[in-house]
Write a structure and sequence with these properties.
The complex is a heterodimer of chains A (273) and B (252).
Chain A (H helix, E strand, L loop, with lengths): L22 E10 L6 E11 L4 E6 L5 H9 L6 E6 L2 E2 L7 E4 L3 H4 L6 H11 L4 H14 L15 H14 L4 E5 L7 H18 L2 E6 L2 H7 L2 E6 L4 E7 L10 H4 L1 H15 L2
Parallel strand pairs in A: 3-8, 3-9, 6-7, 7-8
Antiparallel strand pairs in A: 1-2, 1-4, 4-5, 9-10
Chain B lengths: L8 H15 L11 H14 L1 H33 L1 H14 L8 H8 L3 H25 L3 H9 L4 H38 L4 H11 L3 H29 L1 H6 L3
Helix pairs in contact in B: 2-10, 3-4, 3-6, 3-8, 3-9, 5-6, 6-8, 8-9, 8-10, 9-10
The chains are: A alpha/beta (273), B mainly alpha (252).
């Protein structure tokens, strides 16, 4: 489905490197401003993400969640420390690392249809033009957008717009999907539907996902691991593996005693800070 | 339906009053031709072809100047919009040159180009450049950073970024600047012709006035009004039809 051959060279990784981390963050620090006004957003943060892992990051506002994601995407440069992606340092944005922005309304091209927005990634990935129509159709189908391919983003609901953005990210055949509170602005029903779809897609394609949210239930429901951040300055408070079986179910998983125990644990951590 | 024609009430009433004045001996003025005579002069001008030739001459200079200004204004505007530091370098010079009345350049352009279309187009281009440049800079500057991030994450080349993101995103606002400049182009072209360039509608009006053919002068004045209205109506129609912002809002 993701046609890895077309876009980015995941294939260049040797078999021996496969055991290596997808992301290795070492002693990361990020500060803005100078002198008196200098504010440390992230301090001494180290983290590894395994290939194919679904990592959720939760934390109160001001803990540097979004900044961390921007750093992982290569949209910002850290003040100190380093980030390696499959053994290579991150020096800037790359099509291998797709990012789903929280503000879907601003991240879509209003003058392009849904199909055109999805095709944007195909165009820049140099996918042959003859394949575009088929790929767009397929991606639209995957994200439940088939009936809306010729609509403009302004004609769609928020949930549908976010589906378009995810479809565009999938079109760039990423090996890492970065998601910045992607469902924060959506209603509960829409959010649950999209949660299950993203979980399924990530599992089917073996895509590594770093998912940021302020909703701790969402983090536990989706994640293989939940990293809890503390604020001012942002740092890792706890790194918790989620030992809840997959596939998960919106109703039964959320009633699972293990899920509830984790929920209590994370809630307590966030409460204390 | 009836409301559509309400706008015609004032022009018709004024024409009637004007015609009526002519019939009162005490109110008659030689310099104020009869509407009937003006209409006849307009008819003869159009059927005789002189008015159409003069219109073509004026449009040639106006559109040439506009095109030059559009090419320079868009190119420089996009670059300055994308590079804030370059705008800090060029900004003060732009602010210093912008208030110079375009007509004040007539002596200089006359010296360089002599009489004719090139000199007129140069003055028009100078007048049209500023609105296009200023609007383009601000349009590019106000493009949502989220869209620019999309371009970065997709590793777009400079060309792709320009064609797929920046120009379409800024086009709606740039079009407004272009429309404004188009209206200015006609005004400035006619002005240059009235002041000294021996061609086009402006010169025709001056000749008619000096020959005491006031009916012809009014006919040309009326015609310039019609042409100017046509130009702005045409550009507005074009804008409505092609504006990407408008397209996005259309129900499909």
């Amino acid at each position: 489905m993701l046609h890895k051959d077309n876009c980015h060279a995941r294939g260049t990784m040797g078999g021996a490197q496969h055991a290596e981390a997808a992301i290795r963050v070492e002693r990361l620090a990020m500060a803005f401003g100078e002198g008196q006004a200098r504010r440390t957003i992230i301090e001494d943060l180290s983290l590894t993400v395994a290939p194919g892992e679904f990592l959720c990051i939760v934390g109160a506002s001001g803990c540097g969640k979004t900044t961390l994601l921007r750093l992982l995407a290569g949209l910002a440069r850290p003040t100190e420390g380093r980030i390696d992606f499959h053994g290579r340092p991150v020096n800037g944005p790359s099509r291998e690392r797709a990012i789903v922005f929280q503000d879907y309304g601003r991240a879509l091209l209003p003058w392009r249809t849904v199909g055109g927005n999805i095709a944007l990634a195909l165009e820049t990935c140099k996918v042959p033009r003859a394949e575009h129509a088929g790929r767009v159709k397929q991606l639209a189908e995957t994200m439940g957008l088939s009936h809306a391919v010729n609509h403009y983003p302004s004609q769609l609901s928020g949930g549908m717009q976010q589906r378009v953005q995810i479809a565009r990210c999938l079109a760039q055949s990423p090996s890492l999907l970065l998601m910045d509170e992607p469902f924060g602005a959506l209603d509960a029903i829409t959010r649950q539907g999209l949660q299950d779809e993203v979980a399924r897609l990530a599992q089917v394609h073996g895509t590594t996902v770093v998912f940021i949210t302020h909703d701790l239930e969402e983090a536990i429901y989706l994640g293989d691991r939940v990293v809890v951040l503390a604020a001012n300055p942002g740092r890792i408070l706890r790194d918790i593996p989620v030992d809840v079986l997959r596939p998960r179910h919106q109703l039964t998983t959320r009633e699972d005693p293990r899920f509830l125990a984790l929920r209590h644990e994370v809630f307590g951590l966030l409460e204390g800070h | 339906m009836a409301q559509k024609w309400l706008g015609a009430v004032i022009p018709i009433a004024m024409l009637a009053a004007w015609e009526a004045l002519w019939h009162i001996d005490a109110m008659r003025m030689e310099s104020l031709s009869r509407p009937w005579d003006v209409g006849q002069a307009l008819f003869h001008g159009l059927t005789g072809g002189e008015l159409l030739i003069a219109t073509a001459e004026t449009f040639q200079a106006a559109l040439l100047g506009f095109a030059i200004a559009a090419v320079i204004g868009l190119a420089v505007g996009v670059v300055l919009g994308l590079l804030p530091w370059l705008e800090s370098v060029a900004g003060p010079s732009i602010d210093a040159m912008r208030p110079v009345p375009s007509v004040a350049l007539i002596p200089l352009t006359l010296m360089i180009f002599g009489f004719g279309v090139r000199m007129e187009a140069a003055v028009v281009a100078f007048a049209c450049l500023w609105p296009i440049l200023i609007v383009t800079i601000s349009a590019v500057r106000s493009i949502d950073s989220a869209l620019l991030n999309v371009a970065r994450v997709l590793e777009m080349t400079t060309y792709e970024r320009m064609v797929k993101i920046i120009l379409p995103a800024a086009l709606g606002r740039i079009a407004v600047g272009l429309q404004l400049a188009l209206a200015i182009s006609l005004v400035v072209a006619v002005t240059v012709e009235i002041v000294l360039n021996p061609r086009g509608l402006g010169h025709g009006m001056m000749s008619a006035q000096q020959a005491m053919r006031f009916d012809q002068m009014y006919a040309q004045l009326l015609w310039i009004g019609v042409v100017g209205w046509g130009l702005s109506y045409g550009s507005q129609t074009l804008l409505d039809k092609w504006s990407p912002a408008r397209r996005a809002k259309e129900p499909s």
